[in-house]
């Protein structure tokens, strides 16, 4: 499941790192999953070079952004109707919403919360509905709910400059870069066998 198959660093980086990467790769292979790691570059500045040496490939470098309640600037397009979806009992800390234009689902987004800190993710506007405020309206509704319920911070990673600009208009500021490293495709294919 994309989004649920990433390793995240938690331990200090030291001389055991090469062995730890090898052990992690073996663990993922035992589950027939490709190894993928996601991390904040500013928190783990030496990790990228170690992953390069281990043969992993930089898959993405996205702007890591955050917003606190006092910085939030909501946006609402009057033509977009936001509908919150039922909470999936398997993921009770995740809230999902869709935005509709003229009765058609035009976009969607999710926000997952742990102890008042939330990640906004899965923001998508279907191509025929872009540039009409769909994403900004859905995101604003989710963020407003988060802060109304006592949340203290929302963070996200912006996958492109257009998304980064949208989130800046909502009050997000860049706090770093989120890097994703993955096994090369030929190794990933072998791990799935």
Query: What is the molecular shape?
Result: elongated
Mean pLDDT: 91
- Could you give the order of the helices and strands? HEHEEEEEHEHEH
Outline the biggest β-sheet: 8 strands, mixed
Low-confidence stretches: none
Fourth-tier CATH superfamily name of the largest domain: Gcn5-related N-acetyltransferase (GNAT)
Number of alpha- plus pi-helical segments: 5
Strand order of the largest sheet: 1-8-2-7-6-5-4-3
- Per CATH, the architecture of the largest domain is 3-Layer(aba) Sandwich
Give a quick summary of the entry.
With 193 residues, this protein is α+β, with helices and mostly antiparallel strands. 27% of the residues lie in helices and 34% in strands.
Please provide a written account of the structure.
The protein is α+β, with helices and mostly antiparallel strands and 193 residues long. The protein has 2 domains: 17-61 and 177-191, no CATH class; 69-151, Gcn5-related N-acetyltransferase (GNAT) (Aminopeptidase, 3-Layer(aba) Sandwich), CATH 3.40.630. Helix content is 27%, strand content 34%. It has 5 helices and 8 strands. The protein has an 8-stranded mixed beta sheet. The chain is elongated. The two termini are 16 Å apart.
Please describe the topology of this protein.
Blueprint: H1 17-30, E1 36-40, H2 47-53, E2 57-67, E3 80-84, E4 94-101, E5 104-114, E6 117-125, H3 134-148, E7 153-158, H4 161-169, E8 173-182, H5 185-191
Parallel strand pairs: 6-7
Antiparallel strand pairs: 1-8, 2-7, 2-8, 3-4, 4-5, 5-6
């Amino acid at each position: 499941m994309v989004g649920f198959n990433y390793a995240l660093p938690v331990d200090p980086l030291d001389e055991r790192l090469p062995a730890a990467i090898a052990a992690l790769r073996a663990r993922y292979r035992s589950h027939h999953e490709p190894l993928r790691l996601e991390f904040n570059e500013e928190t783990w500045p030496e990790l990228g070079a170690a992953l390069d040496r281990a043969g992993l490939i930089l898959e993405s470098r996205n702007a890591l952004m955050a917003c606190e309640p006092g910085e939030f600037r909501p946006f609402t397009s009057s033509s977009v109707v936001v509908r919150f979806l039922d909470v999936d009992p398997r993921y009770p800390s995740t809230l999902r919403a869709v935005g509709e234009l003229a009765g058609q689902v035009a976009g969607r987004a999710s926000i997952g919360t742990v102890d008042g800190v939330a990640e906004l993710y899965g923001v998508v506007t279907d191509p025929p509905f872009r540039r009409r405020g769909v994403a900004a309206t859905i995101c604003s509704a989710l963020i407003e709910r988060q802060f109304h319920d006592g949340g203290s911070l929302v963070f996200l990673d912006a996958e492109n400059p257009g998304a980064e600009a949208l989130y800046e208009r909502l009050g997000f500021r860049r706090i770093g870069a989120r890097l994703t490293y993955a096994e090369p495709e030929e190794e990933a294919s072998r791990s799935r066998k």
